[in-house]
């Protein structure tokens, strides 16, 4: 996943997005998308112009981090027991601090099915 650090760099220079657009010739909308981290991609030419204007490296503008694992959710369930089991698995995965009270209640509900 790519993260934009452009807002930090502009703040360090006390520049606005419009200032950067004027100094680089890049459209203001493109700068805005990069600034807010909603751009899906960045042209190498734009990255070069921004780095040149801000006197920094590409790593000062963008950073990469590994994507977080997604929990797969089962959409179709055969029985209410399956639904409860999936909820229990997701709850334990998302919160490692699942309490004994929750476990006891879940087991009670599963036994009553």
Key structural traits:
single chain, 434 Repressor (Amino-terminal Domain), 2 domains, two-stranded antiparallel ribbon, 6 helices, 2 strands, 56% helix
Number of domains: 2
Largest sheet: 2 strands, antiparallel
Helix content: 55-70%
Shape: rod-shaped
Radius of gyration: 24 Å
Give the number of helices: 6
Going by CATH, the architecture of the largest domain would be: Orthogonal Bundle
Arithmetic mean pLDDT: 77
Structural class: mainly alpha
Oligomer: single chain
Which fold name corresponds to the CATH topology of the largest domain? 434 Repressor (Amino-terminal Domain)
Largest beta sheet: strand ordering: 1-2
Distance between the termini: 43 Å
Task: Provide the CATH superfamily of the largest domain.
Answer: lambda repressor-like DNA-binding domains
CATH class of the largest domain: Mainly Alpha
Q: Can you write the helix and strand succession as a string?
A: EHHHHEHH
Strand content: 5-15%
Q: Uncertain segments of ≥5 residues (pLDDT<50)?
A: none
Number of strands: 2
Secondary-structure topology with pairs:
Layout: E1 2-4, H1 6-13, H2 17-24, H3 28-36, H4 44-54, E2 62-64, H5 80-94, H6 100-111
Antiparallel strand pairs: 1-2
Task: Briefly summarize what is shown.
With 113 residues, the protein is mainly alpha-helical.
């Amino acid at each position: 996943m790519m993260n934009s650090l452009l807002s930090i760099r502009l703040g360090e220079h006390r520049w606005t997005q419009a200032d950067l657009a004027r100094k680089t010739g890049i459209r203001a909308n493109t700068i805005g998308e990069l600034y807010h981290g909603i751009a899906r991609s960045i042209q190498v030419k734009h990255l070069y112009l921004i780095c040149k204007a801000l006197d920094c490296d590409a790593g000062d503008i963008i950073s990469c981090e590994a994507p977080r694992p997604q929990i797969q959710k089962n959409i179709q369930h055969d029985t209410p027991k399956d639904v409860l089991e999936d909820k229990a698995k997701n709850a334990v995965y998302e919160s490692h601090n699942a309490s004994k009270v929750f476990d006891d209640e879940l087991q009670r509900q599963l036994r009553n099915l």
